[in-house]
Amino acid sequence: MEQTDGKRSILLVDDDKDFLFQLKAQFEAAGYDVLDAHDGKKAVALLAENRPDVAVVDLMMEKADMGFTLCYKIKKKDPTIPVIMVTSVTRETGLDFDATTKEERSWIKADALLDKPVRFEQLQRTIARLLKG
Question: What are phi and psi of 2, to 5 degrees?
């Protein structure tokens, strides 16, 4: 996505269409150009044509590990694109993992991991931190 107007672009990927709609509206109101996808297949198609400044990706979509796959594909396309993975896996399964160490980020391929429910302000702070970077 070219930024002729100086806006930052964001790729939002989540199979929860209500969550996706809400985030898209909030990011557009905050001045972002938003690309949105409700599944990994559409996200990959968007990535083929665009280079977002940052990506926010759900972990569990059409496949339980689609978020991992998508993070890998984003980083393969351009390792400088910050990726934030948002997930409810801890709440739903009791499994606890993080992306705080270099080793964890190397296999998760995300620069940050946030638990759902996530507040918009928390996403904004994480994006600001990653884009400074």
Answer: -80, 145
Which residue segment(s) compose the domain that 125 sits in?
Answer: 9-96+115-132
Cα atoms in the Cβ-side hemisphere of radius 13 Å centred on 120? 12
- Give domain status of residue 79, yes or no: yes
We report the CATH number of the domain holding residue 21 as 3.40.50.2300
Count of CB atoms within 10 A of residue 111's CB?
20
Instruction: State pTM to two decimals.
Output: 0.84
pLDDT tens digits for 17-50? 999 999 999 999 999 999 999 999 999 999 999 9
Strands (E), the chain: 9-13, 33-37, 54-58, 83-87, 112-115
56 close to 118: Cβ distance less than 8 angstroms? no
